[in-house]
Amino acid sequence: MNIGLREAEAFLKNCDNVYILIHQSPDGDCIGAGFALNDILRSMGKKSAVLCCDNFSKKFDFITDVENNTDFTPDTIISVDVADTKLLGKYQEIYGDKIQLCIDHHISNTGYAEKTLLDAKASAACELLYRLVRFMGIEISDYTAQCLYTGIATDTGCFRFENAGAETHEAVADIMRNHKLNYAKINREMFDIKSVGMLKMESAVINVMEYYLDGKVTMICITNELLESLGVDVSDLDGCASLPLKVEGVEVGITIREKAPDSYKISMRSTGDVNVSEICRTLGGGGHVKASGCAMDGNIEDIKKILVEAVRKGMEL
């Protein structure tokens, strides 16, 4: 059931002993939203903790390096920035059918939670959470402000993507007016600094980038063998999905990342009018109009053919 800010406020005021679930392969938005909500609930006198099936990249230590004790029995399960319970990894089986509130901004949200606060026009889950906090009249800490800013900045590509609308800039302006954070340092950590291994990985995949449909589609494949040879940790791959779109004339960029033998995570990004959310939906996934994904199993060459054909059909619509 979709709800508004007032009902979400009532839910948060009446809940306690909360597990906050965020998605696998965690990015800045789900990390920022998860830990921001955690701090907000604690400021309200609630017991809460953040759960994720994957490790966090070291670049998010300034958010995640806080006390996060999960050693209690939850009475409330909340998810943030999770469009589908399939994205919960090992926690899907445990909590997938027990989520009471979902706070999300994905148009492809499957409505799995008892209550869903959803705005597909919001740039990030952190932007929607910011609106909720403002509606509730809660004074947030500098730490929470840092979490929210990071989530909004990362999901908008440092405010370069089309999803960074007027409300997004207004939210960030309000955060910056009321909280003295080192925004330049956060932006540098999120967008400029990369490990040597990451730079080598980018060079390696760019050199073998594949081109389809008269150069309108590019594809890169990141295997575990490649990551191991370059000394790159999986948690450092946040942002690599944008690489295929850096080529002039490209309308759809596809990143294939090996999760296990014959098991792959697909990230799809687009420019112009191509709706990759709809394309990924036909493959069992979803997300945003310009940024979506899915999971696929099988032979990598067969998967590539399926992806290209799905994109071709999507571009013809």
Shape: globular
Number of strands: 11
Oligomer: single chain
Strand content: 15-25%
- How many DSSP H or I helices? 12
Structural class: alpha/beta
The CA-CA distance between the termini, in Å, is 31 Å
The residue-averaged pLDDT reads 94
Notable features of this structure?
6-stranded mixed beta sheet, single chain, 5-stranded parallel beta sheet, 12 helices, 11 strands, 317 residues, alpha/beta, 40% helix
Q: Would you give an account of this structure?
A:
It is a single chain. This protein has 317 residues and is an alpha/beta fold. 40% of the residues lie in helices and 18% in strands. The protein contains twelve helices and eleven strands. Strands 6-7-8-9-11-10 form a six-stranded mixed β-sheet, with helices on both faces. Strands 2-1-3-4-5 form a five-stranded parallel β-sheet. Strand 10 (286-287) and strand 11 (291-297) form a beta hairpin. The chain is globular. The protein starts with a helix and ends with a helix. The relative contact order is 0.11.
Question: Topology of this protein?
Answer:
Elements: H1 5-14, E1 18-21, H2 28-43, E2 48-51, H3 61-64, E3 76-80, H4 91-95, E4 101-104, E5 115-118, H5 125-136, H6 142-155, H7 166-178, H8 183-192, H9 196-207, E6 210-212, E7 217-222, H10 224-230, E8 252-260, E9 263-270, H11 276-281, E10 286-287, E11 291-297, H12 300-316
Parallel strand pairs: 1-2, 1-3, 3-4, 4-5, 7-8
Antiparallel strand pairs: 6-7, 8-9, 9-11, 10-11
